[in-house]
Design brief:
Elements: H1 3-17, E1 22-25, E2 30-33, E3 45-46, E4 51-54, H2 61-70, E5 77-80, H3 83-89, E6 96-99, E7 117-119, H4 127-133, E8 135-136, E9 140-143, H5 150-162, E10 168-171, E11 176-180, E12 186-188, E13 195-200, E14 232-236, E15 242-244, E16 251-255, H6 260-267, H7 279-282
Parallel strand pairs: 3-8, 4-5, 4-9, 5-6, 6-7, 9-10
Antiparallel strand pairs: 1-2, 10-11, 11-16, 12-15, 13-14, 13-16
Length: 283
């Protein structure tokens, strides 16, 4: 069993055993730790459209504006803990705040403004992962999760690869990132000549892939030289639209930030399913 797998089994065990004990204090709208209702999970917040997920890393105003515009101009905004304070500095209000509240300056100040605050106190998951566990949405566009502390950024990328049921796209000043779902061809209209990097976080066999300058036929993608594998960084699109298929989960695709619309379309095609009705049971 891998370290990552053990970690997620541990998180699940903690929730089931009731170590994360939460109860709503409805008059304030803040989810606070309590011993009165052991084993209670915060209510699942369900969204029927894509949401903007904001982290407390290097959040630039232009990236925030670009993310909002890409989701139609007025998407629901979920702030991961102290990212809410940064949003307020940039003149934006979150729809919901989720986290362990170790960096949010004044949690009690938000509910009177109509912003619910969900406090999840366990320390075996990141605020990014808490946001995914406490919500369901057809797509998450994340900003402010890279460019800050490297360990925080790596944890976010790990979560994207190990929670493939969550459709997440990250946007930064330097790249757009998505996870390639196992067994599902992904069509990416990035344009001929655009850089297309593939980074495996586990050993993965590529399926049919078309349109890359350096084909993946016969290769195994793996971190470093594990099991004779290679990484797929700094490849390039030979045609307007490339097609990528991976046999297993675990590969992240990185494209230029200018390719955001194409990556969003690939992550959530027009036929994309609504939020999973079994989400609450699978958290």
């Amino acid at each position: 069993m891998t370290v990552a797998r053990r970690h997620h089994l541990l998180v699940w065990t903690i929730y089931v055993a009731g170590v994360c004990q939460c109860a709503y204090r409805g008059e304030e709208g803040v989810t606070l730790p309590s011993d009165d209702e052991p084993g209670t999970l915060p209510d699942l917040h369900v969204f029927d459209r894509p949401v903007l997920l904001v982290g407390g890393g290097a959040l630039e105003a232009q990236i925030l504006t670009r993310g909002i515009a890409a989701l139609g101009g007025a998407p629901p905004i979920i702030a991961a803990d102290g990212a809410a304070d940064r949003l307020r500095e940039l003149g934006r209000m979150p729809s919901l705040i989720i986290g362990d509240l170790d960096s949010l300056k004044d949690p009690a100040a938000w509910p009177p403004r109509g912003v619910p605050v969900v406090h999840i106190r366990e320390q075996d998951s990141t605020d990014f992962e808490k946001c995914l566990m406490a919500t369901a949405a057809p797509l998450y566009l994340g900003v402010g999760f890279t460019g800050g502390r490297l360990d925080h950024g790596l944890a976010v990328l790990n979560t994207m690869a190990t929670r493939p049921s969550k459709r997440v796209v990250l946007l930064s000043a330097h790249e757009t990132v998505m996870h390639l779902p196992a067994g599902h061809p992904v069509s990416l209209a990035v344009g001929a000549g655009a850089p297309v990097s593939l980074f495996p976080l586990r050993t993965v066999e590529p399926g049919p892939c078309h349109g890359l300058t350096w084909p993946l036929d016969g290769l195994t993608l793996a971190p470093g030289a594990m099991e004779g594998g290679v990484i797929g960084t700094s490849n390039r699109a030979e045609v307007e639209t490339v097609s990528l298929t991976m046999a297993q989960d675990g590969v992240l695709l990185l494209a230029p930030p200018e390719s955001l619309d194409a990556v969003l379309a690939a992550a959530w095609p027009a036929s994309g399913a609504p939020p999973d009705a079994t989400e609450k049971a699978s958290r």
